[in-house]
Amino acid sequence: MIKIDDKTISSSERTALLLRQLYSDSGYKYYRMSKFEEYDFYAVNKDFLASESVLTFTDRNGKLMALKPDVTLSIIKNSRDEKGTRKVFYSENVYRPSPEGCFKEITQTGLECFGEIGDSEAQEVISLAVKSLTVMSNECVLDISDLAVTEALLDACGLKGDDRRAMYEAVGQKNRETAEKLLKEREVPEELFDAAMDVLWLSGTIGEAKEVMKRAPSCISEACGEFMSVLSMLEKSDQEGKMRIDFSVLGDINYYNGIIFKGFLKNIPSAVLLGGRYDLLMRKFKRDASAIGFAVYTDVAAEYGRERGIPSDDWLNVALPKGRLGEKVYAMFEEAGFPCPAVLEESRKLIFENEEKKVRYFWVKPSDVAIYVERGVADIGVAGKDILVEYSPDVYELLDLKKGVCRMVVACPKGFEYDTGRTLKVATKFSNVASEYYMGRGMDIDIIHLNGSIEIAPILGLSDVIVDIVETGTTLRENDLEVKETIFPISARLIANKASMSFKKETINGLTASLSKAVEKAK
């Protein structure tokens, strides 16, 4: 027999082979499919895609085709309603746009279970998800939540439309302060307020989750009961220690409708496994069945073990913004019990360590902090709300530090009025903020992206207005400009990498609590 070593195949290929063997041994049948579908199929079902952008080509018959952006859609499309349960696994490439805008080939290996889905089928799929993670590394965790519970809570709180979307965003970012403010403004009854904060900010073991949900009000008891039934089965598993209940795990409510989960490996900055229950997709295809499944992103998982510039240890890595704001924020961290005196020494060093406290700080450009955190080089960092809104990094927004307070505004020459009969010229370095703001107002605009000296644009006739940050307004006044509208307030926010929260939760939560007390004390 020929022996295959690591020089012959890549880490991603080896992982895919091991996963395929795992699924086959568990009774799942291999499902092979074409690499493309007719484009119309994806156009009709775009609500179920990760992105509306699809890579297309025209075949020899003039038909518009698309390289697959999704595997599950094709499997369900070609399935039939049958008695019992059908179990399949696959290993395929999909083609999706990256955050930078170019298309990427992504390798997925996963499984789907559809038909008559009960607690035992859900337990089996979740257990296989954990086993899939351990194939890649024993240092792993599967975060689990249930959209049915979340939806029942938001229904009970009476949140609809923009309020509901804002609450989902706050939960997904672990932004407790924003959620509390929203619920109080809507005068949600105390019992439901407490239940929402207890359940939706739950992040702990299965046993801890069950105790919290036992105290839930009767209006959400049915949803909690169904979730707890599956949790009770999982609790008996020898893999229970690698599972965590965390309601910040959210999915597209057009797609998922019950249990959802994400898998993380230590030192990999993003989730390597995504899955959940998707009965809504089955209904879309008029299937009288339920479904649950997951995909492993083996290319992302292949990053495990790759050498990094900083050690892959249990230290807390903190990205601080260079400048006065960073110095103010560091003082808060120091007071919270994470000192590193070398940070304030006069030198050109950028990385500083305190071996006793196991904390590592590094100075970076303020606009780059979120990148370091999202990519996992930093576990936590401090970034302005302007950067978070402009670039939408996939991070947790844990706390408003109330430092660097200013606001994002529309400013213009004194006396300027909008003329809806022509295109509005807007100069800014916050192009996404400006686009979203004026799109919401239904105005036709021409964005002129500048990197500095924004105030001079309307003076020289380059633009009609500017969208920029204002602190005191002195620069505007000295150039005969004025604030026309405030878009949103800005301040420094404590942000965290999502994978880091899975492995350094106690340290990050402890620091967040200490900083929160400092913020309250400073009011």
Question: What does this entry show, briefly?
Answer:
The strands form 4 sheets. The chain has a 9-stranded mixed beta sheet. Helix content is 36%, strand content 26%. The model has no long low-confidence stretch (mean pLDDT 91).
Structure write-up:
There is one protein chain. With 523 residues, the chain is α+β, with helices and mostly antiparallel strands. 36% of the residues lie in helices and 26% in strands. It has 20 helices and 23 strands. Helix 1 (11-25) packs antiparallel against helix 4 (119-136), helix 6 (161-172) packs antiparallel against helix 7 and helix 9 runs antiparallel to helix 10 (221-235). The protein is globular, with a radius of gyration of 25 Å. The mean pLDDT is 91.
Task: Identify the notable features of this structure and list them briefly.
9-stranded mixed β-sheet; 523 residues; single chain
Count of discrete alpha- or pi-helical segments spanning 4 or more residues:
20
Give the amount of beta strand, in percent.
25-35%
- Order of strands in the sheet with most strands: 1-5-6-12-11-10-7-9-8
> What structural category arises from helix and sheet content?
alpha+beta
Alpha carbon gyration radius: 25 Å
Distance between the termini: 72 Å
How much helicity do the residues have? 25-40%
Mind describing the biggest β-sheet? Answer: 9 strands, mixed
Runs in which pLDDT lies below 50 for 5 or more consecutive residues are none
- Inertia-based shape: globular
Let me know the average pLDDT: 91
Number of strands: 23
